[in-house]
Automatic annotation (TrEMBL):
GO terms for molecular function: methenyltetrahydrofolate cyclohydrolase activity; methylenetetrahydrofolate dehydrogenase (NADP+) activity. Its EC number is 1.5.1.5, 3.5.4.9. The gene is folD. GO terms for biological process: L-histidine biosynthetic process; methionine biosynthetic process; purine nucleotide biosynthetic process; tetrahydrofolate interconversion. Belongs to the tetrahydrofolate dehydrogenase/cyclohydrolase family. Residues 136-281 form the Tetrahydrofolate dehydrogenase/cyclohydrolase NAD(P)-binding domain. Pathway: One-carbon metabolism; tetrahydrofolate interconversion. This is Bifunctional protein FolD.
Length: 283
């Protein structure tokens, strides 16, 4: 038996349709500003994808692509200007940032009401307190995907492999808020397989290609692959592969593909967060 494929694009389309309908009821189309620093090709490609999708659903958006040599003070000045501009509803600073810029200083500087990434400590705290306001896009997108496909979360055993601030930690809070029993495993976890085999919902967010092998998965489990790893195949071309080994499809009950699983959910959730931020600002 091969696992049911939990495809992202149709679910992302449902989320986007809802966001576009809500946006049309606001006094002005929500306005998202995306800031990138430097020339990392992967980051620039993600930023282009976010801007393109924003335009497709009718959101106003601007990209500030700053030079690799941008100082922290210059970036903070731009953020201050965007914070003060009432016509800007959402601000996203693409991560990672070059070494001369302290990520924490930047995330603290963004107005929490415009923080469409949900990375400001105030939004992080509200999420862990069980009062989520703006929540990180990839974890929120995963929750929407699970709900849309009717995967039961309340009472389920969820294991997340990876403890990043972008995915593992906020997803743990969201799953806990939805009444799952949550374990966060990581690179120092002893006997990882004995932990992952407990999972009804297994989330691989470690950034290690093929980390999750069939022997690590409980038969019938729902497996969410957050990995986006660029690897060179023998044909000399670059391919995207996830953190889940392809043979897991023979054991899991349901599985997200890479590409075309979680990735489109992240972008859709960013735009939904932008509409949410605008709604909160207009309320
Ligand atoms: N880099 C990789 N994922 C993300 C994300 O969700 N938000 C931001 N700002 N940067 C990222």
């Amino acid at each position: 038996m091969s696992a049911r494929v939990l495809a992202g694009p149709p679910v992302a389309a449902a989320l986007l349709a809802d966001a576009a309908a809500r946006a049309s009821r606001l006094p002005a189309q929500p306005n998202l500003v995306i800031v990138s620093v430097g020339d990392d090709p992967a980051s620039l490609s993600y930023v282009r994808g976010k801007s393109r999708k924003a335009g497709e659903v009718g959101l106003r958006n601007t990209v500030h692509a700053l030079a690799e040599t941008t100082t922290q003070a210059e970036l903070l000045t731009l953020i201050d200007t965007l914070n003060r501009d009432d016509d800007v509803n959402g601000i996203l600073v693409q991560l990672p940032l070059p070494a001369q810029i302290a990520e924490a200083a930047v995330l603290h500087a963004i107005d929490p009401r415009k923080d469409v990434d949900g990375f400001h400590p105030l939004n992080v705290g509200e999420l862990w307190a069980g009062r989520p306001a703006l929540t990180p896009c990839t974890p929120a997108g995963i929750m929407f995907l699970l709900e849309h496909h009717g995967v039961p979360v309340a009472g389920a055993r969820a294991v997340i492999v990876g403890r990043s601030h972008l995915v593992g930690r906020p997803l743990a809070a969201l799953l806990l808020n939805a009444d799952a029993t949550v374990t966060v495993a990581h690179s120092r976890t002893r006997d990882l397989g004995s932990v992952t085999r407990e999972a009804d919902i297994l989330v691989a967010a470690a950034g290690t290609p093929g980390l999750i092998t069939p022997d690590m998965v409980k038969p019938g489990a729902t497996v969410i692959d957050v990995g986006i790893n660029r690897v060179l195949k023998p044909d000399g071309k670059g391919h995207l592969v996830g953190d889940v080994h392809p043979d897991v499809a023979g054991v899991a009950g349901a599985l997200t593909p890479v590409p075309g699983g979680v990735g489109p959910m992240t972008v859709a959730q960013l735009l939904a967060n932008t509409v949410r931020a605008a709604e909160l600002q207009h309320a």
